[in-house]
Structures are given as C-alpha cells and as structure tokens.
Batch of 4 targets.
Target 1
Amino acid sequence: MKVSEFDFHLPPELIAQYPSPRRGDSRLMVVDRQSSKITHTHFSYFLQFLQAGDLLILNNTMVFPARLRGHKEGKSGKVEVLLTKRLTPNQWEALVRPGRKLRPGDGVIFGEGKLQATIVDRGERGKRVLQFHYRGDFFQLLEKLGSPPLPPYIKRAPTAEDHLRYQTIYAEERGAIAAPTAGLHFTRQMLSSLEAQGVEQVSITLHIGVGTFQPIEVEKVEEHKMEEEHYRISPRAATILNRALEEGRRIFAVGTTTTRALESAPSSTAEGIPTGEGWTNLFIYPGYQFKRIKALLTNFHLPRSSPLILVCAFAGRELIMEAYQRAIAARYRFYSYGDSMLIL
C-alpha cells in the first residue's frame, strides 16, 4: 500500500489558524460506515448520536509549555528548543533550531539565566539531549518561560488564548507536546449533558509526542515506524472498559490517540484490558482489526499522515477520502483548531 494513496490537496485557507470564537462552536461531519452516508451538522448535536449505556473514552493528557526560546551561551544568536521526551528529571530529548550550530558542549540560556541547558549528546532524527540547570521547580519555570507548542501548520506566534484553548477541559496528566485535538470541542456543559443522558465517561492517558507531526518518509505504508509514546490505563478505567466490553456496549473513542492507547493495551480472554502503563509505537493502517472501539470522534488530519491512515483503517480509505473532498467543498476548517468528524 502506497502512502500516496492517502494524499489530497487542501487549500491553505482551510487550515484553521485560530480556535473557534467559543469552545464547541464547530461543525461536525457524521460518517456512517455501514450506509456510507455523510451528514453535515454542528458539534452541539453530538449527544444526539449517543444513547444511554454508551461509553465515551477521553485522553486526559495535558499539554505543557514545551517550546523555549533563548540564545546560545556567549553569543546573541537565537535558539529555539522543543522538548520532546523526558529522559531523567533534568535531562530531555529535544528538537533544536538551528540544529547544525548546536553541538555537544554548547550552552543555551533562557529567561536571562533563570534556566540554562547544556547540550550533552546527539539524538536520532536531528534531536539533541539537553541537561538543564536551574533553581526551584522545572515545570513552574516552563510555565513562565515556555509557550504552547502549536503545530507547525499554525503560522503565527502563540497568544494568551492558546494557553487555554490548546488544552482540553479535562486535561489532568502533564506530558504532551500536542493536544488531543478531538477533545478540544467539549465543554463542561456538553459532558454534563452526556452524563445526564446516561453516557458513561472515563479517561485514559496517552502523552502525544513529536511523532504526531512527523512526516511519513517511506513510500510503502507498512514500512513506516512510529515514535514511541507513553500511555496509562488506570484501575478504574480498566474496570469500566472491561465491563462495557463484556456487556457489548458501544465504545466511543475521542481521538486517534485514545484509539491507539486502547488498541495498544495487551489483552487476554481471562482478564480483558489490564491496568498498567507502557510505551507504544502502534501504527494502525488499513487491514488492522480493531478490538475495542465502535465509534470514533476525530478532527480532519494532514495528508499522508499516520492519524489520517488510522481513520482510513477504521472507516475505509475510499469513504474517508470522499468525506475529505466533501469537507473541502463545504469549506470545513482543518487540523488542530478545525472542525470535527464522527465515524459511526
């Protein structure tokens, strides 16, 4: 299977550069896998597609201000660092710019010296390993000195609004450098209404890493390797999930990251989904047999990307590519701050 089969042209003006004026004020495309029917509606009608007994699975990862701007020690040249993976309490793997000018032994200064780092090693795919030096709490410093790691297709600097809007309202577990964007649409009122309707809700965790934006550089889909991301399923979540599976209830996954965490968890006929955590590099592409989810809420994804390929695996490539063409014709907003799609 060729990656080019998942390509499409998107007019640049359809890439959402800002969130909608109000959270939840977005369009919703509904795709029925059995009938191939495609319906246009509004996210405020999302709850009409669920019923009492359904289980809604959310990814409660929290985005942290992973982007830092500073300068090389002893020089005025600007340096940008995107933290991608914590290796030890004070050591991080990161993407740095300009990468070619930053070598092991070089120092970087942030916030007039309140936070400093030394490059100690080279990592894979152009990454660097940084050892940080500071006083106090590292994440409190990040809150002051860092900024939201907006995706590269958002062509502007982060604003104060992004600190709130590039985060789900149910985010709890700090560790992501990208938001689980399907969850950005939910308001507290929507979740309360779903609960009152008898829709059960539970959270699991998958910390989204840099791999979510990583282009697929191979020609054949099957040869692509995902970067590892950390996930966790709590005892409470495992209990609720296993009960729903045993009872044959519908499980709605909010987002491709939630889907990957659910599908990554090991299973056995005796115990079902176990409690636990681990690292996953699961790449889901057409031909994959989904074990747990019955419906998927997602945003509109980049062409030739792993999230798009996952969605095609769930609903069929032809149906999804047709849905994307209709979304473009109807002027839907695409990507992180864009509109949503519900696949039933």
Target 2
Amino acid sequence: MRIEKIQQLLQESGKDAIIFKNRENKKYFGSLGGSGIYLVVTPSSQVQFFDGRYRQEIKDLTNGFENFEVPQGSYLPKIFEWLQQQGIKQLAIEPNGLSIQEYRAFSEEFAVEIWSHQLQEIRAIKSAEEIQLIRNACALTDEIFTELVPEIKIGMPENELGALIHYLSLKKGASAMAFEPIVASGPRSALPHGRPTERAFEQGDFITIDFGIVLNGYQSDMTRTVMLGEADNELQTIYQVVKEAQQAASDFIREGVTGQEVDAVARKIITEAGYGDYFSHGLGHGIGMGGDVPILNPKSQMVLKENMVMSVEPGIYLPGVGGVRIEDDVVIQNGIGVALNHTTKELVSVGECYV
C-alpha cells in the first residue's frame, strides 16, 4: 500500500507524523482531495479530519482510515488536540499544502520539518497500475486529437477550438482537463502558454495545441503544432528542428541519466540550429496525478529511474512570427524511454474555409 511507504519513511526519519493538505498528495494516499480534509499519517495510523460536507463521501470513497468530523473552520484545534493526545512532537509537513498561517500555527506547537524531495521520490516511481492509467489517458488524448484536427478551418476562432477540446474530452470519458488547454495561432503561437482568444485562424498559420485530460485520476499532456494551408518557410524549418530535438531527447531518456542531461540533448540541437535564445523553458516535467517529478531542465540533477513518467516538450518561439512545440509523455521501462503518445509528429496541413 502507498500509505505504508510514508509510514516506513516516518519510522526511518524519526518523525512522529506528517500532515497532508495538498490535493494530489491526499488523493495519492487514498484520501479525498477536498479543501476541507486534512490527512494525518503516523507510523501506525492514518486519520482523516473533515467537515460535514464530506461525511458521505468519506464513507463511500475511502477506507482504512480513522475518521474525525469537525465543525467547518475548526480543523487545527481538533488536529492539535489529537496530535497532543498521541504524544506527537516531531512533525513533517508538505511544502505546497498548508498556508503560511497554518505552518506558523503548527510550528508554535511542534518541531516542524518540511518534506519536499521525500514525497516527490515516493510519487515519482509509478506502479504498473499507475503506468497503465497514464497510458490509457494518453491513448484517449490521441483519439481526441484525431477527431479534433478535421474540424480546424480558416476563420475558426481559437476559442471555439478550445471549447471543442473540452467537449470532446468530456464526451469521451475524461473527468476533467488536466489544465486549461492552449490554442495559439499565427503570431500568437510564439506564446508558450497562449490561451485561446477570439483570434480567427488564417491561411498560413501555425497552430499550437497543448492539452491534457484526467482519466481515472491520472493525467496526460500532449502538444502538437499543425499548419493551416501552406506556412512560411522559416516556420517549416523550425518545425523540423523542434521535431528532431524532441525525438533525440526522447530517445536519450534512460535509467541513470539526469534531467539536466536530457534537457541538454534537445537544447544542443536547437542551439546549433541558431534558435537557442528562443527555447525559453525547461524540456519537461513529471506526469501522474499532478505536481509530479522528474523535472527536465538545465538545472535538474534528479537521476531518472525505472517507471518514472515525464513529458518531453521542446519549443522554438519567434516573436511576431510564430512558434512550434511538440510534446509526448515518456515512461522508462526496461531501462529506456518509451513514448506513450502515438499521434504523428510529422507536420500536418489542415483546414478549409470555416462555415
């Protein structure tokens, strides 16, 4: 069980308990993700503190926990009371769950240590079940994209394509979007995080489409850049550079290399092509329930291990001209990287007139 991993870590570290408030961490350890739920784990117990909004869900959707219902807004006094009754003095907390006010309150009562890499490493190594769930999410993402592409037309607003991504994703079984989809066309494709606007697609546009879904609690994340009709020669050139960099970095992924080394493979290709200044972000991030590692960027010293899953998404962004990003999710299995997305990475030309 996942909870046993954290209990073993508590024993090894000499900590008496850890408090979880971060949504993804709570869900990872089998609790509910709601804002009115605090998860407390000790070496021998796991306890959910919750308010009345979650009374039925706690019963229906979780098991193996002690449960304490508290009046809404009075979580901390009840948690402090329970911790003190257990004789707890050494407390671990997450870096991204509790508020600063809550951190101060815990620090006044207990010896507090922030656990970051400890939790990241537990979640980074995916089980066979988790990998299959991510694989399923990626397969559905491929399917959604396949249906999406024929709908792209000259004159269609970015907003409409964004809405269609939402619609197809939910229609086909996703429970939510992993993040707000990116649809950036023409000169706006030079914006790495260009959210959809009212801009209508024009002949010759490059259109960057970046979206992910949540399916059975696990996420996907895929980016493709398509061409509307015939695009500018320089855009077609940078497409091929990005495609080469993305494939080379994906092929380099293996157990034992660092995130920095993988990032350097893609960055070298883009830099040698003369576009190094226009690759303005890290190469990738962990894939899972959200907030996962490893991180692939110029500073990442994290060593990649079997069953880690990560995105690989180099890009080139030319201000006033346009940009390209191509992204797959990659898992390390049998020591090497395996792409989970199967949508073509060849440059696809789409679009007739919008009606």
Target 3
Amino acid sequence: MRARAPGKLVLSGAYAVLDGAPALVTAVDRFVLADASRAAERVTPEVRAALGDAPAPWFDASALREGDEKLGLGSSAAILVASLAARELARGSRTDGELAEAVLRPALAAHALAQGGGSGVDVAAAAYGGTLSYRITPHEPTVTRVTLPRAVVVETWWSGRPAATSDFVGRVRALRERDPEDYATLMDAQSSAALRAERAVSTGDAVGFVSALHAQRAALAALGRVAGVPIVTPEAERLASRAAPAAVLPAGAGGGDVLLHVGFEPSAPEFRELAASLGHRLLALVLGARGVHAE
C-alpha cells in the first residue's frame, strides 16, 4: 500500500505543448512516497479533485523540496500519482506498467481540474518514468519513450526561488486572447524548435538537440517579453552568455526556479562561478528514473 512516483524535468516544448507541439520530459530520481495505510496530514487540491471526500493517503514529498520551498520538479503531479497508486495497491499487487495505466487517466483529469488546465506532461512523467515525447491529441495524450543522444550532458541548476508558473501560463493565455497574431508568430517559433528537438532525439543527433534548445531559449525569451512575464530571467540570460556552446534555458514554464545547462560536457568553472554568485546551486539528479511503483 506504499507507492513512489518521481518528479520531472521538462527539457523541451514548454508552452508549445499546449498547442499540440511535442514536449520532451524526463523523470528524475527524487520521489514522492504515499502510504494508503496512513491518513493524510494534508490533502493537495489535485488529490482532492481525484478522490472527492474519500480518505486520501499520507504522503512525503520532502525529496522534491528544499526546506519550505518547492524545487520546481513537479511535486503536485508526483503527489497525485503516488497517492492514486497507493490506493490501487491496497486493492492488490500491480506491475509498474499496470499501475501506471491504472492511475494515468484519473490523474490527468484531476490535475487539469485542480489547475484549470495544463498539458499533463508532468503527470505522464510521474506515471511512466523514463524520458518521454508527449503530445496533446484530441482524445488523449500520445506518449512515446525516447532516449536522449548519448553525447548530451544535462545539468540542473536551482535558483533557490520558486516560480509561480500558473501565473505565467495565465499571462501567455491572455496574450493569445489579446493579440492572436503576435501570439501565433511567437508560438510558431517555439513549436518549430520543439519539433527540431524531437527529431534530433529520434535520430540521436546531439548537436541538433542542443541547437534546438538554443532556439527555444530565444523563442521563450521573446514570448515572455511580449506577454509581460520573465519566462527567461535576466540571470538565465547572463548564464546563457557564459555557457556556449551549451544551451541554457528554463526547465518548463520558466521564471528562474530551475535552469538547464545542456551541452556536450559538464559546465565550465567560469559558468559555475557565475551561477554560484547568482545564488544557483547544482542539483544532483539522475534522469530517466523509474515511474510509479510499489515500494
């Protein structure tokens, strides 16, 4: 009756995934633990949306936090998936695949209800684990397992400050309503770069993948400027200028909580010195972690 579900990093396709472009997401080796034999001390909005008045499992999400602050690794989705999985396990044993299939659809519905929409990419990562290509399609998302090019080195840098991503998404949606032509132009650039990233991953093209992430940072920065939100923060821009040939971009919706350094070797000392001076810390994460499973 104890289940674990991983956090996630969105590597590619932020915002554009909502318009049907592919996102690339990877599960990370920091897990939420849920226990259906214990009463919840706190019930998240997502779990309440899934269970209504039914008893919710106890959970521990401390691995996805630093003190009182979220690390920006998809804790709400991981809590939801682990909680639903713990209840499934109370009814009988399941393989990892059976457990993922049992919880995915109700978790997607509850997460969207509680958050007023969203892509569900973090829910898929928590359920399936590994590294995924994820697309929103008319009936249900299309999820495909992928492997990052072997030459790529991904580092995750945390700023120590959480980002209000729901506000960012709301401002981007407001731009779509206010100026659909500008929105379409900006989103076309991000969607095109997301498609390039997916193609590069499918062919093992490390250079093409990093190039596509460079293009996404530029596209996201332009989108944020017009929408009036710092998707790519000034700190991220400074770090990107020190990272070449590696790409530096926000993981997911942006705002500066988690930055990715994606290149062909670990970041240089000069980059690390600047990152430290800006209050960023390298997180020790293993990508492609196991999906939801019984402990």
Target 4
Amino acid sequence: MISPVLPDVLAAGLRIVFCGTAAGTVSAARGAYYAHPQNKFWPTLFAAGLTPRLLVPAEFASLPSYGLGLTDIAKTTFGMDKQLAAGALGRRACEAVRAKIEACQPRVIAFTSLTAGRSFLRRDAGFGEQPERIGETSVWLLPSPSPAAAWNWNEGWWRALADSARQQRSSTAAAEG
C-alpha cells in the first residue's frame, strides 16, 4: 500500500473536517497541510474564530483539540489540481473520504475548493451548505485558500461556516442542558 502524502487528522466528535483535493507541492515538501506561505487557510481559521490563535502549518496535528480535522481526496499524490493523475479525484477516492466521514461522524465536512466538493458530490455545485448529508454530517463547499485560486477567494463563506458551526454547538448544548 502506498503511504499518504499527509496523514489524516481525524477523530470522533469533531465539529468540522476540512477536505482538500490533494496536498500542494509546498505542503508535500514541508510535510504539513496548507503550508504555502501565501495560503489563506491558517489565517482564515483564526479570523473566522475557529481557532483561538493563528496556528502555523507545522501545528496541523493539534487541530482536533479545536474540534477540527483534515483530509484530502487524493491521499497518495500531490500538486495542483490540473497536475493530478486522471482518476486521482475519482469515485474510489471519494468513496474512501465518505467512509472516513461515516466512521468519525463530524458535524460538518467542508471541502476547501469547488473542485474537491464537485468531485465528491459528482455534480456542479456552488459555495455554501449543500443538501446532501453523510449520515448526520452536513456538507459545505468553500472557496479555495490556495494562492493559485486567489481570483475566486471570498472569506465570507468561511465565516458563514464558522457561524453555522457555532450555532450548531449552541443548539446541541441547549438540547442537552
């Protein structure tokens, strides 16, 4: 079996699991998710209130302590989407993501690009929450934080996801209390 480029960061009971297409070249070289210096992932987590401080890519394994997780559709290859081998984002890879999400049951899976989300859903889709569910897990599509996708960047969708996650947590706490 081929080793993953980056390990999954998954656990039961997470609020949000972020799922990209594949590790970028810089991330693969540095052994950390969203490691390109111009990637907006880490600053956006902090700006949206999903982490209490600005984390650096090397701290990716600490995300479960904040209720967050990480994975990619294509686990054994890296590069920009257009550089990935045919089938890297295909049915088998997407079924593997679905199985991971069914196993750990986060409240939300958030695809960190339209390409990742559309590959998983097997349909055209826009940003935001989608009608599909994976068990009880809601599905979101977010603008890519990659510097290569700067033309499409909109932090508002990330903030909407964070607000939704906070509302879910408040609703769950009220129901349990």
